Amino acid sequence: MKKVGHFGTFDVDNYGDLLFPHIAEFRLPKYQWDHISPTNNQTVFKDSRPIISFDKAKNNAYDAILIGGGNILHLLPNYVTVYNNKKGFAYANLWVGAAKIAIEQKIPLLFNAPGISRGFKGFIQKKIAIKTFKSSNYLAFREGISKQIVSNSIKRDLNFKNKICVVPDTAFDIHKLWPLDTSTGSNYITINLNSRYHCPINETAKELDALSKKLKMPIKLIIIGDCHGDKFFTEQVSKLMKCDYSIVESDELKTVAHVIGKGKYFLGSSMHGFITALAYGVPSFLVLNNKSKVLHKFKGLLELAELSNNVILNSFNNVGNKLNESAYLTKQVKQKIDNTLNEHWQVLNNIIQSKEKPKFSFYIVKFDTLLNLSNRFNRILNKFF
């Protein structure tokens, strides 16, 4: 049985990231899988797939390397990420380090529709990124803006021949992975809260009370990304709420999915909560209180789902009057997403079977040394300029 090394942030308490190992195994069940993250830390979700650390994976033999999904394609040092208790470049390991393993073992290198969070800055970063993308045997991103970032970076590289694909986030398969039971949905509103988008607390609490009263439904506050402090923030908001509500803090990913899937509406800032709702056919809104600075991951998602920006609201206050504009996938769009994902996984399977090899690059093999030198140089410059 062929063994695939699958790289991503599967060691954090975040619903969305932890779906990818399940979906990869569901789509390609005939392979053996190592799901690889910066650490082997266990999450609160007891149904998450087993993981191993990057350091352990470096010594294992694989038949293919699969990168993503998730918003993992950047080269920032650990001290500005959730891995700030470790030295080095944990995120770089998940794709450039993965590429290095593929080169050393002469096995296919495949990008499973991850996202690029920001453009690459500086000569070294750009060179490492371009060489890694150029080395791959299949290159797919989850939205068009990530593709554009790469396209802008390679304008002068006439030797870059790789086709760059745009594929819907693979979490759109969740309704196939965990179908709802035959019982009907429940009459409640599912809401996820995050301090980045839903402050101040007192105003959010008042808005949710008013929404619950207007729609005559209880609210389920669901914890989706506690790695972002969602639990504490949700509890703070809930203490000021007067409506009928409950907090759903499940230790099962499937339960989180089904709470969203059985609700009457989904509202919040979680991209994968929103995707889950769309996949199950639950009318939804993204509630982001700074609509003018919406991250491109949301913009790209709406583009692929053929949804207008009207499904992004500045506050929960706006929901009650816009229910007829809620996000909902048409049959045609849902079929298009299914067809694209079917083709995506078939291509991945074919390349794994073909034993294609990635292209060698000095910038990949020595990426950690180069990033350390670049980071030191930038720190010195910042002291004087």
Automatic annotation (TrEMBL):
This is Polysaccharide pyruvyl transferase family protein WcaK. GO terms for molecular function: transferase activity. Keywords: Transferase. The keyword Transferase applies. Residues 27-289 form the Polysaccharide pyruvyl transferase domain. InterPro entries: Polysacch_pyruvyl_Trfase.
